[in-house]
Amino acid sequence: MRFRLPFLLSIVFCLYSEVGAQPVPIDTLHKYGIYDTDRLTPEFHRSRRDEFRSHMAEHSAALFLAAPEKIRANDVYYEYHQDPNFYYLTGHVQPDAALLITKQAILVDGQLTHEILFVQKREPSHEVWTGPRLGAEGAKSVLKFQVALENDSLKRLLTIILQSIDTLYYNQVSLRSFSDPALDTTWNPGKDLFNGIKSKYPKVELVQPQTYLSEMRSIKQDEELRLMRKAITVSNTAHNEIIRTARPGLYEYQLQALGEYIFTRNGCEYTGYPCIVGSGNNSTILHYETNRRKTEPGDFIEMDIGAEYHGYSADVTRSFPISGKFTPEQRLIYDLVLEAQDSGIAEAQVGKDFKAPHRAAVSVITRGLLKLGIITKPEDYKKYFMHGTSHYLGLDVHDAGNSLKPLQDRQVITVEPGIYISEGSPCDKKWWKIGCRIEDDILITPHGPEILSKNSPRKAEDIEKLMSKHN
Question: Helix 252-265 crosses helix 222-245 at what angle (to 10 degrees)?
Fold first, then answer.
């Protein structure tokens, strides 16, 4: 192959405007083991690359590496999950790949381009074990890259480019992973490409791309919202079915299993995060993931489970009494958390400070805990509400975004206040073992907050009504 530098600019835009939004034929998708027809389109990913390129400095390039495969034990690997930034920019879901973006165009094998996808070589001896690889031709026909090369070409091309640029954007997390011998796969660019880069190319400034990508990813496009609505709807379905069928004597893992079954039955590839199903005192552990305890009459359940669909995660929490009826103490705590959540959601407005929902929730919870006699000083609310109220949601459950900037149209955040009173807390023991969090996924719009996860009951009486259908 031939690479020509310096960079050329003349016909880049007309060359790219010729690429139409043509759907990928079904038989082409099936050839590469792809069966979902509602994935993000190649045009979406190209628009994200174009947007990122617009932020790049002149005479610069950006390199993104796919997530490495990770060994669970011996020769068994963890289920593969692509690096969110790499997926956002490419749509490629296989390992041992790299994306190179240049600010100005280069000529590669007679084609003028400023983006190249490097992928695994197709090898039948490997594919018989793990399925079809996309390969260079698949990257062109499925992902619509004009130039795609096998990954063994990366070092040679990057070596040439580093001699002609002033700035290299790189994904530090991916590079660190590839540089760890314990995590290396057969294709390992990290050691050879980046060791000593500053000494070999002292004039090249190394810059993290996350600042730009975080702000881009925080503003959701229509295609992304479609997938998020799907993940959230499935999560609501799972929550409702678990609440409806829950009863004392079930194990926490049985409630978890029902939720994960509903996720898979509805086409979701993963959970967005390890499922949290805490009963009794376990409900007061914020990220409890053991899920092995047998539930008992009178237990309060804090259940935080969310599906992931085509890379996009839901994040929904509901809390409920395993016996179907709230005790007086459970009801008081629940209604206080719900009031705090309602106050937080009301603050999820365009132009508001990112922490406005948290301040509103803290105000309500502090006042309520004082009134109930659980605390005697306002600052002690932190003993029972020790986390933030909101985070961004998207390709990561705790998604990229800039919390120092005001909330913007088309951002998705959670609003999730909670109260956690563990056994032995410095208050009347009638409150012990009540851990309650209510979490919903909120779309910021010019017309006010939209609760995307509204299809699971939030009011105590509605939860009891749903549970009465079984209990």
Answer: 140
Q: Which residue in this structure is represented by tokens 């990770």?
A: 70
Residue 215's contacts (CB-CB under 8 Å, 6 or more residues apart) are: 401, 402, 405
Per-residue pLDDT tens, the chain, 471 aa: give them.
Answer: 444 444 433 323 333 333 445 788 999 999 999 999 999 999 999 999 999 999 999 999 999 999 999 999 999 999 999 999 999 999 999 999 999 999 999 999 889 999 999 999 999 999 999 999 999 999 999 999 999 999 999 888 988 899 999 999 987 555 444 433 433 344 455 555 566 576 788 889 989 999 999 999 999 999 999 999 999 999 999 999 999 999 999 999 999 999 999 999 999 999 999 999 999 999 999 999 999 999 999 999 999 999 999 999 999 999 999 999 999 999 999 999 999 999 999 999 999 999 999 999 999 999 999 999 999 999 999 999 999 999 999 999 999 999 999 999 999 999 999 999 999 999 999 999 999 999 999 999 999 999 999 999 999 999 999 999 865
CATH number attached to the domain at 3-216: 3.40.350.10
Is-above-0.85 flag for pTM?
A: yes
CA 469 – CA 457 distance, rounded (Å): 14
Tokens of 297: 């009459």
Sheet holding 307-309, edge to edge: 270-271, 307-309, 312-313
Residues with a catalytic annotation lie at 75, 287, 304, 315, 387, 391, 398, 416, 420, 437, 439
Q: Note whether 442 and 344 are within 8 A (CB).
A: no
CB atoms within 10 A of CB 176: 12
Q: Among residues 417, 359, 416, 354, which one has the least CA distance to residue 384?
A: 417
The answer to whether the peptide bond before residue 124 is cis (omega within 30 degrees of 0) is no
Distance from chain centroid for Cα 320? 26
CA distance 394 to 311: 8
Q: CA-CA distances (angstroms) from residue 135 to 105, 139, 150, 438?
A: 23, 6, 7, 45
User: Where are the CATH 3.90.230.10 domain residues in the chain?
Assistant: 219-468
Q: What share of the chain is helix, strand, coil (3-state, %, to 5)?
A: 40, 20, 40
CA distances, 104 to each of 49, 99, 100, 112, 425 (Å)? 13, 15, 12, 10, 61
Spatial separation of the C-alpha atoms in residues 68 and 193, rounded to whole Å:
16
Domain 219-468 has CATH 3.40.190.10: no
